[in-house]
Amino acid sequence: MRNARKTLLLSLALAFMGAGAFAQVDYSKYEALGDSLTAGYASDALTKFYQDYSYPSIIAKQVGIGTFQQPIISDPGIGSSGTVLMLSKLLLTSSGVVPVIVHTPGNLGLPTNAPLPTPYNNLGIPGANNNDIITKTGDITKPLTGNIDPKTIMYDLILRDGQNTAMMQAIGAAPTFITVWSGNNDVLGAAVSGVALEGVTLTPKAKFQTDYTTLLGGLRQYRPAAAIVVGTVPDVIDIPFVTTIKPYIVNPATGAHIPLLGEAGPLTENDHVTLGASSLLAQGIGIPVAAGGTGQPLPEGSVDATGLHAGVILREGEINAIEARTNEINGIIVAVAGQFGAKVVDFHAIYMEIYANGLTVGGIKLTGAFLTGGLFSYDGIHPQRLGYAVVANEFIKAMNADFGTSVPQVNLRPFLSGASASATTTVMAANAVFSTEAAISVVKLFAPNADTSSLQPGHRVRKLVSVAPAGPTAIEPATP
After folding, report:
1. CATH match of 27-235+317-442 with 3.40.50.1110
2. Which of 183, 310, 374, 468 has its CA 20 to 30 A from that of 173?
3. CA nearest 42: which of 385, 315, 338, 296?
4. Residue 288, preceding bond cis, omega within 30 degrees?
5. pLDDT over threshold 90, residue 13
């Protein structure tokens, strides 16, 4: 009995010591590294309306951080082409109500805290991949003097000092807690440009291994006591930008599927068409003459001697290549995280569950559908406020489970109403017209060197080289 008592007391003491160790996790100095998903980028812009609800900002509030510094851009924001996307009008047609997505007209937003003497706490950079996080710098004097370079604008706004990379700035801030959600842009360019090609739109596996090891290894080497949580990469093939438009139209008389036309021939039902095709389809491009279209094919992405040419079609082989590389990247993330003592949030599995079964909040079922699902913003790639709150809660769940803390999750119910749900509508999202300008802007963020001329109506049909596997009435909606 006495030995049993000693064993029990020893077990309790060890449990107490473990709990004490968990309680020592310090969230007070928090740095977030990543890409547009970390930055709170949405509707193709960095803008206060969404940045205030970036997942790092939400986490900071939930752990009690009083001041969490972000590179806030006043509304309407700054995007890869200058402005934020918005639902500009609803068109009443014989088929129903059709939304039109365009860029907000008017002046750009402005950085509100550019003179901050310390690095931002949120160092997420829209368009950045892992190599960019560890190698690129930015100079705030360029945009402040009117020298806006679309290829560097996000680095200039966020990194500012012209000398230190995102990784260096995060280390220099002496954080006690770090989140890293990167790797999305090592595959996303392939999905939005319609070209899946090794070393062009897909980061080679060995290169990703080196860059991700350098990133986490550097954080651990210089901040050995910091708690680190990382995220895996969701399946970019399942985002609304890629899944909303079907590769066929339906014969209303028979219900039969009529394949759309691409430069390489009719599409199969295993192929995907991106939102970049919507403005072309609205003019009959990609639709057979017998079905009322022009018979002119939709552009397929390609690479030739002049470079990368964006398209709007992902053939089945390209889809398989993107998903295979995503799975390889996620395997690397998990392995490297284990090597350097970082915890992992499996966003790939989380997003797949949402795509398959939805997410119910306050009795309302949310899905990954474009405009109607409630989680994604107008660009069909990035979450809106509610989507970022869901991401924040998944990080918090992992923090509590892995570190034994009790950080409260954010209440999602307020995000279901008012301005927070501004990207949710019940109109015919599948028939949305994603403007030419919007499509080009989105492609340029993730594939800045791509030729996007083929996305414009009247494009000339190219010979593919090295292809990787009644008048409507306008209704103005409420301003988001």
Report:
1. yes
2. 183
3. 385
4. no
5. no
